[in-house]
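User: Please predict structures.

Assistant: First:
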Amino acid sequence: MSLPLKIAWRYLMSKKGHQAVNIISIVAVCGVVVATAALICVLSVFNGFRGLIMGKLAMLDPQVAITATMGKTVNDADSVIDAVSAIPGVERAVPVIEDQALAIYAQFQMPVRLKGVPDDYNKMNDMDSVIIDGEWKLRDQVSQYAVAGAGPAIRLCVRPEFLGMVRLYAPQRQGRVNIANPMGAFRQDSLFVSGIFQLQQNSYDADLIYVPLDMARNLFDYETQATQIEVKLAPGASESQVMNAIGKMLGKSYQVKNRLMQQQEAYRLVNIEKWMAFLLLAFILVIATFNVISTLSLLIIEKDESIATLRALGADDRQISRIFVLQGWLITLAGAVTGIVIGLILCLCQQQFGWLRLSGDPANMIISAYPVEVEGMDVLITLALVAAVGLLTSMVTALIMRRRLNSNSRL
C-alpha cells in the first residue's frame, strides 16, 4: 500500500478534531449508500416486471417465428416448413394464418383477430395452462370449434357450454363488390366455442380467437399461403444457432424472430421506463457526492497542521493532493460497496418473503408482491456510475487542494 493511500485510509477511519466533520462524513457516506442501494433495487424491480411480462407472452408466442420481408404472407408455406423442419434443433414447424374478421353471436358483435392454427397447436406452447373455461379443441366428428380470449368471450357473451354458434365474416380478397348484394362481398363461416383463455395481457386477451387452420384459409381466401410459420425448438437446442441456420437457408426474403424480437415494442417500453428511472437516481447520486466534496473541503481545512508537517517531512504538493483525492475515492467506494450489498440483500429478501405488496385485490392480480430480478450487468453499470462520480469528486478535490496549497505557499 502506497504512503498516500495509507494516510488517506488513516484520515478516513480516525476520529476528526471537530464533531461536525465526523457527522458530515457519515452523512456523505450514507448518501452514497442510499443512492446506490436504490439504484440496485429499482433496476431489479424493473427487471422483475420485464421478466414477468416476457414470461407471460412467452406462454403463447412461438420460440421462433418466420414471416415474409415483403408482403403479408409466406407463399408455398408447406415447402418452407419442410426445409425448416430438416434443420438440426427444430422439433416442429407449423403454418398459421392471422387476420381481422367480424364475430357475431346473438345480438352481440365485435371485430376480432382470428388466428388459424393446426388442431394440436396446444403442443407448440403452454396454451392448456391459460385456459380458464372449457378445453382446447378445434375439431371433432360433429363440428369445428374456436378457443376465444377473455375479451371476445365477455363482449359476445359466449361460453363453451352454449349451443349457439359464433358467425365469422371476412371481406373477400378478390373479386368485385355487388352493390345489390353487399353480403356477397364477405366470406362467412360458423363454429362453436370450446374454450376460453386468459393470459392477462391485453394484446392477447382483448380480441384474439383461435380457429382451425383450414377454416381460416377458406375464410380469408388463402390456399398454400401462411401469414407466419412458427417453430418449436428441440430440448437443448441453441436458439441463436437455429435462427442463424434458418436465416442462411431462407435468405433475405424472410424475417426470423425470437420471442424477444416478436415483442420488441413491449420490451422497448419497459427498458425506456427502466433507464429513465436509472437517470433520475443517477442524478440523485451525483447530488449526494456534493456531500463528499464538502466533507473533503472541511477535512482539508482541519488538516492544515498535518499538511504543514507533511511538507516539512519532504512531501511535495502532488503527494499531499493525492492523499485527499484517494480519500474521496475511498468514501465513494465504501458507500458504493455498502450500498450494493444492502441493495442485493433487500432484493433477495423481497424475492424470498415478498415484503413489498402491490395495492389492489390479490384475486385479480397475477402477483401480489413486487417482482425482483437481479442482473449482473445492472450491478456493473451501477459500479461504473459510482466510479465516474468518484472521478468527478476526485477532480474537484484536486482542484480545491491545489488552490489551498498555493495559498499556503504564498503565506
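Second:
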Amino acid sequence: MADTRLKVILKCSECGNENYNATRNKKLHAEKMEVRKYCPKCKKETLHKEKK
C-alpha cells in the first residue's frame, strides 16, 4: 500500500525562515499547505507556506 502522507517543511512568508516540519495527506489536500504559526525570528504569528 502506497504511503499517502508527505513530509513537508513550512517556511515563514515574511522572513523566509524554515521553522516547522509537518505532514499532510496528498489525497485529501492536493493543494500546498498554508498555516498561521509563530515565527521565533519575527517574534509574531505569521503565515507559513509549504516549501517546494
